[in-house]
Amino acid sequence: MKSLIYTLITLVSISSFSQKETLALDIKVRDDDQKNVFLENARVRVIQEGKVISEALSDSTGTIDKIVIPMQGFYAIKVDKEGYALKFGTITTSSANTRYASGTIKFPMVVGLVKPTEREDYTFLSEQPMIEFYIDSLGEQAWDDDYTSKMLEKVVKCQEGWTIEEVENYVAPRNEGITLLEDGNFDEAREAFKKAQEFNDNPEIKTALKDCDIAQTMTESNQIFYDKYIQIADQLLDNKRYEEARGYFELASGVMPYEVYPKEKMAQCEAIVSSGSE
Prior knowledge:
By secondary structure, the protein is an alpha+beta fold.
């Protein structure tokens, strides 16, 4: 009996694993400057631990014959063509939750290659993966959106005529400024935006500086209204005019919704009115 149970468990385990052990790479290659132009004879290499384990060329539609690889370890997928800069992505399978996978996991990819220019040779694309794939908790293809967006911005700005050095010197302080602005640190945000502006004075950064001024003005105005509403509400509360006091505390909370004080006072007024005591 024990032998039969062990055999059944083993068979289930082997069957479960065999259904989830491969990735099917479905790759198309196009010219990233001409989105509808697909590239023939682009080379795709699948590399693991420094060794090429699969290699193929794209046909006239930019399509690579489907490549099936074991769902095991870490892969680099490198794509290149004469006259274009190399691009690559990575696939990490080590953290995959195979419990939810079913059969071969599909990995479709559309790879856009870019041509080097006099100002930018796109060497950084051979040093930094364009996209980092992994297997998500449902056993499906996934990637880091934030990382991919940052890489995409680098490529797009270089296509617009920037160098990668200009992009990186501009983007870092701009992003810092956005974070500072969201946190309400207006002076520091303004300095960060101005630092970015030194590298590239464009409409985006001019708008960011205006947004900073507007946000600071609105915050200062809100503070004035908040203080006034709280002053009136406190006086009404002292005079035991609870319903009116509650109304002004509510106005203050609407102006600055993250403040705890007016919410606590509103609750106090409501409790007093409900109890009928003064």
